[in-house]
């Protein structure tokens, strides 16, 4: 029997990278999974690749920066599964990389809309039913950039730091009602979002040299922590931010 048998999950940004790995690991452990991504063809491809696992995987296109899309996402999950036991807020963007004084308000607003408001909105949609049932797990995918600032990445670091504080605030309020809220702060993971840092072999090697564990992190290594946080074995764990960074923060 899988660790997430009879559970139902929503995973945002589930068509590639960390989100796809989480969806796969959840389904392997028996959960039914509703994933989403912005592009319909990407959703179809991701769902097709995750068939045949212990849990059922389905998905819909969804732009997490649009409230109406989030409403549809949750309504569809409720119609398909009848409940949502696990919410993974993984979808994120990084539209601004460079000196902080070069960023404009449009970039600021977009980063907040996608990286923070999407979580705020989804929690408001999903948490009340979790509270009513007396159980649930919310997992927010943050970043070590939210713990120590990433150079020339003000907006990304700022939003991930805020996401960590949101996690703690939700945990304080929801814990007495049976709902746990935790965050995962990955270091450098081999995804499209982070390819600026790892695609160049010289840059990647330099970054790896700063880590006690000197290999490029893989999405599956983050996904296994998400499984642990979603499962009942973490019933005494809430309000925490678990770093999955090969020890990178130890060297900063």
Overview of this protein structure:
The chain is α/β, with parallel strands linked by helices and 252 residues long. It has one domain: Rossmann fold, CATH 3.40.50. It is built from 8 helices and 7 strands, in the order βαβαβαβαβαβαααβ. The protein has a 7-stranded parallel sheet, sandwiched between helices. β1 (8-11), α1 and β2 form a beta-alpha-beta unit. α1 (17-28) crosses α8 and α4 runs parallel beside α5.
Q: In DSSP terms, counting alpha (H) and pi (I) runs of 4 or more, how many helices?
A: 8
Q: Which runs of at least 5 residues are low in confidence (pLDDT < 50)?
A: none
- The value of Rg in angstroms is 17 Å
- The percent range for strand residues is 5-15%
Give me the secondary-structure category.
alpha/beta
**Biggest beta sheet summary:** 7 strands, parallel
Mean pLDDT: 95
Shape: globular
Secondary structure: helix percent: 40-55%
Any idea of the CATH topology?
A: Rossmann fold
What's the number of extended β-strand segments? 7
CATH top-level class: Alpha Beta
**Total domains:** 1
Order of helices and strands: EHEHEHEHEHEHHHE
Q: Which CATH architecture would you pick?
A: 3-Layer(aba) Sandwich
- Span between N and C termini? 41 Å
CATH superfamily: NAD(P)-binding Rossmann-like Domain
List keywords for this structure.
252 residues; alpha/beta; Rossmann fold; 8 helices; globular
Gist?
44% of the residues lie in helices and 15% in strands. The N and C termini lie far apart (41 Å).
Topology of this protein?
Elements: E1 8-11, H1 17-28, E2 32-37, H2 40-49, E3 57-61, H3 67-81, E4 86-89, H4 105-133, E5 136-141, H5 154-174, E6 179-186, H6 195-198, H7 201-208, H8 219-230, E7 241-244
Parallel strand pairs: 1-2, 1-4, 2-3, 4-5, 5-6, 6-7
């Amino acid at each position: 029997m899988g660790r997430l048998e009879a559970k139902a999950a929503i995973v945002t940004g589930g068509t590639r990278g960390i989100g796809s790995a989480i969806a796969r690991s959840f389904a392997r452990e028996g959960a039914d999974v509703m994933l989403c991504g912005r592009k319909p063809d990407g959703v179809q491809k991701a769902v097709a690749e995750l068939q045949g696992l212990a849990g059922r995987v389905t998905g819909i296109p969804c732009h997490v920066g649009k409230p109406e899309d989030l409403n549809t996402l949750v309504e569809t999950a409720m119609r398909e599964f009848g409940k949502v036991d696990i919410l993974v807020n993984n979808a994120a963007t990084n539209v601004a990389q460079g000196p902080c004084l070069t960023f404009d308000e449009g970039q600021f607003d977009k980063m907040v809309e996608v990286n923070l408001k999407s979580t705020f909105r989804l929690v408001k949609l999903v948490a009340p039913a979790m509270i009513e049932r007396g159980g649930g797990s919310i997992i927010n995918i943050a970043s070590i950039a939210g713990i120590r600032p990433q150079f020339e990445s003000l907006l990304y670091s700022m939003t991930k730091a805020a996401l960590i504080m949101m996690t703690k605030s939700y945990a304080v309020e929801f814990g007495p009602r049976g709902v746990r809220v935790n965050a995962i702060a990955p270091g450098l993971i081999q995804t499209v979002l982070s390819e600026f840092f790892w695609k160049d072999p010289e840059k990647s090697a330099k970054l790896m040299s700063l880590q006690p564990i000197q290999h490029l992190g893989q999405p599956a290594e983050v996904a296994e922590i998400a499984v642990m946080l979603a499962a009942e074995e973490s019933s005494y764990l809430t309000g925490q931010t678990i770093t999955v960074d090969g020890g990178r923060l130890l060297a900063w």
